[in-house]
TrEMBL record:
Keyword Cell membrane among record annotations: no
Protein name (record): 3-oxoacyl-ACP reductase
Molecular functions (GO terms): 3-oxoacyl-[acyl-carrier-protein] reductase (NADPH) activity
Native source species: Dactylosporangium aurantiacum
Domain of life: Bacteria
Coiled coil, from the record: none
Database matches in PROSITE patterns: ADH_SHORT (PS00061)
The protein's Enzyme Commission number: 1.1.1.100
Native organism taxonomy: Bacteria, Bacillati, Actinomycetota, Actinomycetes, Micromonosporales
Length: 437
């Protein structure tokens, strides 16, 4: 759906009124352009920790410009071991933060507090979260700020994450805390098509966010199996045909769905490399007006089906080596939402699923992560009452809704073969929504 307010705000007259009246000013976000540079300006790196040199070597590899507009500020805070050391954040960012160009990037690198040597260091490293989230709300003009906790020993596992955060692929991701742990890094021959030779299965792929996920994974080289319910068969076939993928009609809540899916994978593809749990439904009512069927159907589709499918994928070794599962949660599962006790419960359960099972996935050489979209421009959000829709669009640091491709790009990063160190994360794709953590 077209954001008419944003179009007006970008016009000559609109810019005048926005400035004079102090209205929300949605910036034009820099999104991925396959013909454009990964980084559109110089990257200033500082800090005295263990990640400075790996980052500088990576930037040299990427051919980042050494001069011109400032595209990103990267600070290695891993050397901060007490509260006094936090002054280094101010000393680095204060003179430079206003030099960032539109859609600039701020990245702070730290050590996971739980892995710190003592309580003082853990305290200082935890303080980085408040700094980064506040900076993200101050940047404006489409700028983003992220904190990446890198475990000792994971210094060489940061490339896929750095590429994502520095590029336009992360346009609607801000204020996030990402953890990267030690892992074998499967470096692709071609970073523009890292999924060549891999099979991805995307549920709920007939429309909206699911179709965008299928499109981006196909762009990155994967053969995509587009899965949805039989009732969406016509749309599903159209999406799959356009992507030269495979259409699979299956009701994931059916008792025999896991078995049928397992047989399909084993027979047609031997294994799947990527599985994206995107399928989801809403049945919104306040709790006192919600009937049992509305409650149960949402829990079955949004959470129960994911549990059952994951169990068969693991039990029958249907995920290839270095396999990826990405689940779609929601900001509603973090902050709650009136009239969505069933939906928020299911989406919070998805987060619990990821956090509970990620260690076992890591031990098996696999990863399990989730994305939590905020307000994304889809047919579903277009049907919202106007005032609720406008509140959803404006109540974030970007003052606008995200696009399905923003969710898809984030999932593509988590599905990347070089993202083996990114496990157990829940990444909000919400433009740093003012709701929730």
């Amino acid at each position: 759906m077209t954001d008419r307010y944003a179009n007006f705000a970008h016009s000559g007259a609109g810019k005048f009124f926005v400035r004079r009246l102090g209205l929300p000013d949605p910036p034009k976000l820099r999104r991925h352009d396959p013909d454009g540079p990964l980084i559109d300006g110089q990257v200033v790196v500082n800090g005295g920790g263990r990640l400075v040199e790996p980052v500088r070597k990576l930037l040299e590899k990427l051919g980042a410009p050494l001069e011109g507009p400032t595209a990103a500020l990267v600070f290695d805070a891993t050397a901060i071991v007490d509260t006094g050391g936090l002054r280094g954040l101010y000393d680095f960012f204060h003179p430079l933060i206003r030099t960032l160009r539109s859609s600039g990037r701020v990245i702070v690198l730290g050590t996971p507090p739980e892995l710190c040597a003592d309580a003082r260091e853990a305290t200082a490293q935890r303080a980085l979260e408040g700094f980064v989230r506040s900076v993200g709300k101050e940047l404006g003009r489409g700028g983003t700020a992220q904190l990446v906790y890198v475990s000792p020993g994971a210094e060489e596992a940061i490339e896929s994450t750095a590429r994502f955060l520095l590029s336009g692929r992360s346009a609607y991701v801000s204020g996030q805390v990402i953890r990267v742990g030690p892992a074998a890094v499967d470096v692709p021959e071609d970073w523009d098509q890292p999924l060549v030779g891999r099979t991805a299965i995307v549920t709920g792929a007939a429309r909206g966010i699911g179709a965008a996920i299928a499109e981006v994974l196909t762009r990155d080289g994967a053969h995509v199996v587009c899965l949805d319910v039989p009732a969406a068969g016509e749309d599903l076939t159209r999406v799959a045909n356009a992507l030269k993928g495979t259409a699979l009609q299956l009701d994931l809540t059916a008792e025999d769905a896991p078995r049928r899916l397992a047989d399909f994978i084993a027979t047609r593809h031997v294994h799947a490399d990527i599985f994206v749990h995107n399928a989801g439904i809403t049945r919104d009512k306040t709790l006192g007006r919600m009937d049992a069927a509305q409650w149960q159907s949402v829990l079955d589709v949004n959470l129960g089906s994911q549990e059952r499918i994951n169990e068969v994928l693991l039990a029958e070794n249907l995920l290839g080596g270095n396999g990826r599962i990405v689940a779609v949660s929601s900001v509603s599962g973090i902050a709650g939402n009136r009239g969505q006790t069933n939906y928020a419960t299911s989406k919070a359960g998805v987060i619990g699923l990821v956090q509970a099972h990620a260690p076992a996935f890591a031990a098996a050489g696999l990863t399990l992560n989730a994305v939590a979209p905020g307000f994304i421009e889809t047919k579903m959000t277009a049907a919202m009452p106007m005032f609720i829709r406008e509140a959803g669009r404006r109540m974030n640091s970007m003052s606008q809704g995200g696009l399905p491709v923003d969710v898809a790009e984030t999932i593509a990063w988590l599905a990347h073969p070089a993202s083996g160190g990114v496990n157990g994360n829940v990444i909000r794709v919400c433009g740093q929504s003012l709701l929730g953590a």
